[in-house]
Design brief:
26% helix, single chain, Immunoglobulin-like, alpha+beta, 557 residues
């Protein structure tokens, strides 16, 4: 990929919110949860979608099963206003009732009036029939929707991507990361000979003269934005993988027919990524279903158990840097742990998805090339951060509001700095224990291993393992837009380092490496300040290898 293409892709990612808002017309994912939606918990989704490739339209049916937590008079789902609802109904034990539907919020919310107030402890089973032409993705995956493309042979090639606008771009859903169904059925009907690749395990395929229906079942919790519809005249390349947890799991690569040989050759490379992540974080989370990859006409997306992959089998190329491995695949695979297994309960903590997946790229490069490869990756990231807004927020936030390059690169650099602060032993233990807090979760395959988290959860585990307060660290790096400033003053034989106060937050106490005549020392700052005695004329380099994320200000006397 040449320099101009990399630049265009980076710009596209960084300006997503600006570029998409006009066409989105109020469409967004997450944010403050409606009281009517907070009052119920989805336990199961059953989604059926019939795809018309010629008309570029879909005809669907969604059944949601939900446990009522607080009394509600309306059952509210999200659905893009481009898609028309033909009916909604509530299924009771002895009858089915039609539900009146009102569209609100620019048509993107379905308010269905219940025949009577549902009480805490009730179970609702609501079905919505809908159809239409879903939003076409202008620049997937960053500016998402449906992608209607063609294979090199001119056949239909379809994929979905909806990380920021939400799954409701193509199916009715409670569009908030905090609510994952315990399981989900996904039926996809396509014109023959197209093949549908989706989440979970393939249970059945049925044919008619002109169409084919693929029935998938997801046996574990799944975040709605990772539900995927991939379709093409795929060929399936299968193998098995023996997990560090013991036992084998199925592996499937859905590739274009012209790329079958390349897909087969790439799988061992990809399985090395799985092995590294298992050794670093714990077992692959969704062993009960599969590890899957689907070739797509856009770069990639972390669709649970069926990663969208469009990096043209660039096994030596990176994500805009010379990684020495297929960093696109590695990044999306890393989301199976951070994003799909460990999911931010609100988009305000989205950096836990992207910052962690990005940082794991550097760890993998370190395993391949050593310290120099790791440092090279970190240097690249440092040149990409913007410091336009905080990486995390205290209050509920929508996906588009949080999205930008800083949740990737600055998020990764925060983890890089934390590693220096608490040391390698504590840091790598932290990665494993935050991923899988218990041995039971590490061994589980029934869905009990999946969980929702916050930044405060991560901080609590980091403090427990490191045995130190990280209040100032998290305040400075995650909840402030600007980087903390380190002022260095040299006066005679005195070298003073001082962290600038961060608003009304606590004084930063992050230690700083200082190289004096070639000898690197770890300087601990008490109350944000440290003074060293150095020889006259000594060669001094503050933080020679960029261990600490900061603004550096040098003031010599």
């Amino acid at each position: 990929m040449d320099r101009m293409v990399r630049l265009i892709l980076l710009i596209a990612a960084s300006v997503l919110c600006v570029g998409c808002s006009a066409d989105a017309s109020g469409q967004d994912s997450g944010g403050a949860l409606l009281p009517e939606q907070a009052a119920y918990d989805v336990t199961y989704y059953d989604l059926s979608v019939d795809v018309d490739t010629a008309a570029q339209s879909i005809d669907g049916r969604l059944t949601a099963v939900a446990a009522v937590l607080d009394p509600i008079d309306h059952f509210v789902l999200n659905l893009d206003g481009r898609l028309e609802v033909s009916s909604a109904r509530l299924t009771l034990s002895d009858e089915t009732l039609e539900l009146p539907v009102e569209r609100r919020a620019d048509g993107n919310q379905l308010w269905m009036t219940l025949p009577s107030t549902a009480q805490a402890g009730d179970t609702l089973r609501v079905t919505v029939d809908y159809a239409g032409s879903p939003r076409v993705a202008p620049q997937p995956p960053w500016d998402g929707g449906f992608t209607w493309s063609k294979t090199p042979a001119g056949e239909p090639w379809i994929a979905t991507s909806c990380q920021t606008f939400g799954a409701d771009m193509w199916w009715p859903v409670k569009d908030h990361p905090s609510d994952e169904p315990d399981s989900m059925a996904i039926d996809i009907t396509l014109p023959r000979p197209l093949v549908a690749a989706s989440n979970g395990r393939l249970r059945d395929v049925t044919d008619t003269d002109s169409s084919r229906t693929y029935r998938w079942f997801v046996s574990t919790p799944i975040n709605p934005y990772t539900v995927a519809l991939h379709a093409a005249p795929y060929v399936r390349v299968d193998t098995t993988y023996r997990s560090t947890a013991g036992g084998e799991m199925p592996v499937s690569f859905y590739a274009l027919p012209s790329d079958k040989a390349r897909a087969r050759s790439a799988l061992p490379h990809f399985l090395e990524h799985v092995r590294f992540l298992e050794n670093t974080l714990g077992p692959y989370p969704f062993r009960a279903d599969k590890y899957g990859v689907a070739q797509t006409p856009f770069k990639g997306m972390e669709h649970q158990t069926i990663i969208a992959y469009g990096n043209d089998f660039n096994l030596e190329g990176g994500l805009y840097y010379p990684a020495g491995f297929d960093a696109l695949h590695f990044h999306e695979l890393a989301h199976e742990w951070y994003g799909n297994l460990v999911t931010a309960s609100d988009w305000k903590d989205f950096w836990i998805h992207e910052g962690f997946a990005t940082y794991l790229e550097a760890l993998y490069r370190e395993s391949l090339e050593g310290t120099q490869g790791y440092r090279s990756t970190v240097r690249f990231w440092r040149g990409q951060i913007t410091n336009r807004s905080p990486v995390a927020r205290k209050n509920a936030t929508s996906a588009q509001e949080m999205y930008g390059t800083d949740v990737y690169y600055k998020g990764a650099l925060i983890l890089h700095t934390l590693r220096y602060v608490i040391g390698d032993d504590a840091f790598f233990r932290l990665l494993k224990e935050f991923t899988y807090p218990t041995d039971a979760m590490r061994a589980a395959t029934d869905g009990s291993q999946a969980r929702s988290v916050t930044t405060d959860d991560f901080r609590a585990v980091a403090e427990r393992i490191s045995g130190r307060s990280l209040d100032a660290f998290f305040h400075a790096y995650l909840y402030q837009a600007e980087l903390p400033q380190l002022t260095v003053n040299r006066a005679g034989e005195a070298l003073t380092l001082r962290w600038t106060e961060m608003g009304d937050g606590p004084t930063l106490d992050v230690p700083v490496p200082v190289e004096i005549n070639g000898d690197v020392r770890r300087v601990v700052l008490q109350d944000g300040t440290a003074t060293l005695t150095v020889p006259q004329g000594a060669s001094i380099v503050v933080d020679p290898h960029g261990a600490v994320l900061k603004q550096l200000r040098v003031a010599s006397e």
